[in-house]
Amino acid sequence: MVSFEMNDRKKIGLGLTGFGIFFSFLGIVFFFDKGLLAMGNILFLSGVMLTIGLKSTMQFFMKRQNYKGTISFGVGFFFVLIGWPVIGMILEAYGFIVLFSGFWPTLAVFLQRIPILGWIFQQPFVTSFMDKYRGKRVPV
């Protein structure tokens, strides 16, 4: 098993990422409040940069296979900032799915190993659903 060193920079990055997701959730709950959504986007991106590093972040977003997701996420971010949060969030959601669909197998294994919730994700109907989509990229 590969060890994952957790230094202070990565802890802060994970915290910022978590706050970014939380603020984005609040922005959606409060009828697409553009201030909360913009704050969530900024916190999420800065958290990802701190967690994996600036160079790795740039390499991830600039991969040829991630161009559609990067452009969609960026245009959605711009639309949220200029005041069109619904259109922006639709574009961001599409970009997020395209960008992070490759992480589905890792997420599925992680969810199955959570002490209490993992039992739900280990049930046959859930595992068959997860196996159906494991390792497949969203067609773009």
TrEMBL record:
It is a multi-pass membrane protein. One of its GO terms (biological process) is endoplasmic reticulum to Golgi vesicle-mediated transport. GO terms for cellular component: cytosol; Golgi membrane. InterPro entries: Got1 (IPR045176), Vesicle_transpt_Got1/SFT2 (IPR007305). It is found in: Golgi apparatus membrane. Keywords: Golgi apparatus, Membrane, Transmembrane, Transmembrane helix. Its main location: Golgi. The chain crosses the membrane at residues 12-32, 38-57, 69-87. The keyword Transcription regulation does not apply. It holds the Pfam family Got1. Belongs to the GOT1 family. This is Vesicle transport protein. It comes from Papaver somniferum (Opium poppy).
